[in-house]
Specification:
The structure holds 2 protein chains of 2 kinds. Chain A is mostly helical. Chain A folds into 3 domains: about 150 residues, no CATH class; about 160 residues, no CATH class; about 240 residues, no CATH class. Chain A is globular, with a radius of gyration of 28 Å. By secondary structure, chain B is of the alpha/beta class. Chain B is built from 11 helices and 10 strands. In chain B, the strands form 2 sheets. Chain B has a 6-stranded mixed beta sheet, sandwiched between helices. A 4-stranded antiparallel beta sheet of chain B has the order 2-1-4-5, covered by helices on one side. In chain B, helix 3 runs parallel beside helix 6. The longest helix of chain B has 18 residues. The chains are: A mainly alpha, B alpha/beta. The interface between A and B is large, with 35 and 48 residues.
């Protein structure tokens, strides 16, 4: 499948040996760095499944998965055998550590490997202690064989069943780990209501297929959703929900009926919109359809989690079934909706696209109400990395210029904005070492008295564009000396730029301006002051949920700009340059200009992100601008798929979002990075979502402007 | 008589101690099909690289369309109206066929950075795509526009490379071994196609070729290089009877019996 020279020794394939050998080395190191010990205290399913057991299963299962996937045989037996052997080899790595522990005194092991925790007696020996260690080791070997075989068996199932089982198990673990943070996101009554409205709209979509007028259908979808809203409103008012709209089963009071929405009319309209969404997806592209239903499933599960409050056994089973079933049943429905979508006229397609876009935007805008501070905070971070990923994609994904110093532009944007907005003793009239006579200044001067950095003459909104422009121009300036460098050489030099920036921000020589290790604070938060229009319109973007809007606006803007550019003359020049610089130039692409524009555009997005980052953190410190930032951004665009905007989103969710939510693996972040990169590169060398092929000749047949004779039926 | 479109005067290119191109004079009048032949390693491709600006000649002048172009960068020379193809096909493999052609149009389009961002380049793009599709039809690749260039069969890749070169609306088209790796039937088709380029588009064509049948059939003018020097120039008939040419070929490349037989 992957490798033509996959020689075999009997049934055993070389790929199996190769991958499981790599895996064994990784596992040996993981075990020595204490992965089982650290994870032992954490439960995935309450009192049933602990995280170290999950780690053990993964440690055996992932090599088995990779080996099974790369098996070239059509016979299930051989796939199963290869997977089992890969699992066995992986398990021997764990056993080696167990044996090491019996030979070397624990203190010495812990002296060398700081995080090492004894693993005998834990999951690694299946609970067996020193006295019956042999049994434990044999047990683990047997378990690894069986487990590997099961993985191989799953792989031999039809694709859809395989995906169903894997997605069911995966989401069970992820939701189990996140349970603490997400259990209060959606109340059961809200979940029931919203999902109910969605299903009503979806049903209406199928029931009204014969109706030709799209707007009449949409109205019916809206009415179907609204009707569900009315039912819930009546139920709520007649006391069917315990107090404040919480379900009789338990769980939190309804957010919708309890607080966020303060009029019944708004609520009915809101439910109507959900119904409309349900109807729209029945004739939308399969991607839209599938993600919408997937979202509905997650919403329903969150409601149930709110009642259960923990990842109980029943919750785990429901989660598994829900995701497995979703994986099996949603795609065929999606194919149907896609078929509907394809038969539509261009105008109708366009109107569906516009409505989908608006609905998605509405969803994104109301999301912080449901998500709570913690998840919103994580999403803010994810979006920051999406912005940077989109920017770095211009350099690496399109123009093919490997940049390892992207953090430099990020830092320049952040520092520029911070310096311009942070008030200091120079600009406020607060005088240090003198008692503050005027009470008016007392409040204002707190925190500023010791602050020598910053000029504080601009608001965030004025400083933001300046930060973007400064980043773009410094990016271009850094680009000038490296114009002639390619590939590895360019990577090394840009790496140097990144480090230089970090060192400069820490240096004493720049301390009067940049504040050295103390950085610059307090950076003021952005304020939207529209009191001249309406006395109530004064918004401080001072917390995760409000800065969220700034991020989401920036992500959308960045994605739009880069999407437009990538299909334009400039984007083609970038990609041609990536493919073959000399030929591109011989075809008339001016290299200097094109490269510098790539540097500039790319850096501008880092600056854009940096300025928001400074305002969000209320201060900036050199430690935020390490090489790791550059590596994170680069890894996420490679995993997502170079040159692909949806790929950046998926990559950022996986590499930034997941570790942030799964606090337990924070320490193993880099290891997880490495493993993930290797696995993705082995299984999907073009990344998870490779960039789309632009079907230009089809696009051409669709008239760009309104055609003279409208062809609605 | 017309002024020559390309006039190369005393051009020399050295790499360290090696003189790859040694004071070559050569001129091509508009509307001609000119060929450059010579044994392997004679410096033909290096000479092409000097004309297209990939190499800067150490000495000499290259006048194109009455203006000197030696020492200019390849993109500027492309803009002046010289386009080329390569001996070993060099397409932008992970771009579609149409996108390859649109890159060829690069200097004829005007959108910079801001217009695409604001969505103001649509009319220009639509026109460019229409023209690119027409060009595809011209070279016989209709309907292949959305395939990845790297996935096309070999013969089509050759045609695409020519289409990409044509997209820049050149005055002079340089073809570096356009029939390399082709069988006799494909070669005949290519020969007819090169003629068609000259006759229908009014191009001046300058080609490097090893296939003597093709060279002798379609060329108006043949130049012969050996060890970096031009050793002969003339009509196909003159070249076939030139003793220096025969010596050069026989001395270095005995396999080429075709030359001998025809002489």
């Amino acid at each position: 499948m992957m490798n033509q020279n996959n020689l075999r020794f009997g049934f055993l394939e070389t790929n199996t040996l190769r991958y499981s050998f790599y895996a064994a080395i990784a596992i040996f190191i993981l075990t020595l760095t204490g992965i089982f010990g650290t994870f032992a205290q954490r439960d995935v399913i309450q009192d049933t499944l602990s995280l170290d057991l999950v780690a053990l299963v993964l440690v055996i299962g992932v090599p088995a998965l990779v080996a099974g996937r790369s098996s070239q045989s059509d016979k299930p037996v051989i796939t199963i055998l290869n997977s089992a052997i890969a699992g066995l080899i992986a398990a021997t790595a764990v056993i080696l550590v167990v044996l090491l522990e019996t030979i070397v005194p624990q203190e010495e092991l812990m002296f060398v490997f700081n995080n090492y925790r004894p693993i005998i007696g834990g999951v690694a020996t299946l609970g067996a202690g020193q006295d019956n260690l042999i049994m434990g080791i044999l047990g683990l070997l047997a378990l690894s064989l069986i487990l590997g075989g099961i993985v191989g068996g799953i792989l031999s199932l039809p694709q859809r069943w395989m995906l169903a089982i894997l997605s069911g198990l995966g989401s069970m673990v992820i939701i189990g780990l996140m349970a603490g943070q997400i259990r209060n996101l959606v109340t059961p009554s809200d979940a029931l209501g919203v999902v109910g409205a969605f299903v009503a709209g979806y049903g209406a979509g199928y029931a009204t297929r014969t109706i030709a007028n799209p707007w009449l259908r949409r109205l019916l979808g809206f009415i179907a959703g609204g009707a569900v809203g009315i039912v819930f409103l009546v139920l709520g008012n007649t006391g069917a929900f315990a107090q404040n709209g919480a379900l009789l089963l338990g769980g939190d009071p309804s957010i919708i009926m309890g607080g966020a929405v303060n009029s019944s009319l708004t609520m009915i309209i809101g439910f109507g919109i959900v119904g409309l969404a349900g109807l729209i997806v029945t004739s939308a592209s399969s991607f839209v359809h599938n993600s919408a239903i997937f979202l509905a499933v997650v919403f329903a599960l969150l409601g149930m989690l709110n009642v259960q409050q923990r990842m109980t056994v029943i919750m785990a089973i429901v989660t598994f079934i829900a995701f497995a079933a979703a994986t099996i049943f949603i795609p065929p429905l999606g194919t149907q909706s896609n078929k509907q979508y394809r038969t539509l006229s261009p105008q109708q397609k366009r109107s569906i696209d516009v409505i989908t876009g608006v609905l998605a935007l509405v969803l994104a805008l109301v999301a912080p109400v449901f998500m709570g501070q913690y998840i919103t905070n994580v999403l803010d971070l994810v979006m920051l990395y999406i912005i940077m990923g989109i920017g770095l994609n211009v350099m690496v994904g399109y123009a093919g210029l490997l940049d390892l110093g992207y953090v430099a532009s990020f830092a320049i944007g952040a520092y520029t904005s911070a310096i311009l907005t942070t008030p200091s003793i120079f600009t406020t009239g607060c005088i240090p070492f003198e008692p503050i006579a005027d009470a008016r200044y007392a409040e204002m001067c707190t925190g500023i008295l010791t602050n020598w950095q910053g000029v504080g003459i601009l608001t965030f909104w004025q400083a933001w564009p300046i930060a973007i422009v400064v980043s773009a121009f410094t990016g271009m300036a850094l680009g000038v000396p490296v114009l002639r460098l390619r590939g590895d050489y360019l990577a090394i030099v840009t790496l140097g730029f990144g480090e230089m920036t970090r060192v400069l921000t820490r240096a004493q020589i720049t301390a009067p301006v940049l504040g050295a290790a103390q950085g610059i604070s307090p950076v003021p938060f952005p304020v939207i002051d529209l009191t001249s229009l309406n006395p109530d319109w004064y918004f401080e973007l001072s917390n995760a949920s409000t800065i969220y809007y700034l991020y989401i606006f920036s992500v959308l803007a960045a994605a739009l700009v880069v999407w437009r550019l990538s299909g334009s003359r400039l984007g083609r020049a970038w990609r041609a340059m990536k493919a073959d610089e000399d030929v591109a130039q011989a075809m008339g692409v001016p290299l200097v200009r094109t490269k510098l524009l790539a540097f500039g555009v790319s850096s501008a997005f880092a600056g854009l992100g940096g300025a928001i980052f400074a305002a969000q953190l209320r201060g900036i410190f050199p430690d935020s601008f390490t090489l790791l930032v550059s590596i994170n951004v680069l890894s996420l665009i490679i995993i997502g798929g170079l040159g692909s905007i949806p790929g950046v989103v998926v990559g950022a969710l996986m590499l930034v979002g997941l570790p942030e939510v799964l606090r337990e693996i924070q320490d193993y972040r880099l290891l997880v990075f490495g493993v993930l990169l290797v696995v993705v590169m082995l299984l999907k060398p073009d990344g998870l979502i490779p960039p789309p092929i632009r079907q230009l000749s089809k696009q051409q047949k669709v008239p760009q402007s309104a055609s003279p004779q409208p062809n609605t039926q | 008589m017309d002024q020559p479109l390309l006039n190369v005067i005393d051009v020399t290119k050295q790499f360290g101690g090696l003189t790859a191109v040694n004071s070559i004079d050569l001129s091509i009048k508009p509307g001609l099909i000119a060929s450059l032949i010579g044994p392997n390693g004679a410096g033909k491709t290096t000479f092409f690289n000097c004309v297209t600006g990939f190499y800067t000649p150490n000495e000499g002048k290259i006048i194109f369309d009455d203006r000197p172009i030696q020492g200019m960068s390849t993109d500027k020379i492309a803009k002046r109206g010289i386009a080329r193809t390569y001996q070993n096909i060099r397409l932008f493999g992970d771009m579609t066929v149409l996108e390859n052609i649109l890159v060829g149009m690069h200097h004829r389009l005007t959108a910079g950075m801001w217009r695409p961002i604001l969505g103001l380049d649509r009319a220009e793009e639509a026109d460019a795509i229409t023209e690119a599709i027409r060009l595809l039809e011209f070279v016989g690749l209709e309907g292949q526009g959305d395939y990845m260039a790297a996935n096309l069969p070999y013969g089509m890749q050759r045609r695409l490379e020519i289409a990409r070169a044509l997209a820049s609306k050149p005055k002079l088209l340089l073809l570096d071994e356009p029939t390399a790796g082709m069988n006799p039937i494909e070669t005949d088709t290519m020969m007819a196609f090169i003629r068609q380029l000259r006759d229908e588009l009014g191009l001046t064509i300058f080609l490097i070729e090893h296939d003597m049948k093709l060279v002798m059939t379609i060329s108006d003018q043949v130049s012969v290089m050996d060890y970096g020097r031009k050793i002969a120039e003339g009509t196909p008939k003159e070249i076939q009877n030139d003793p220096t040419v025969i010596a050069a070929y026989l001395g270095t490349n005995i396999e080429d019996e075709e030359m001998e037989a025809e002489a």
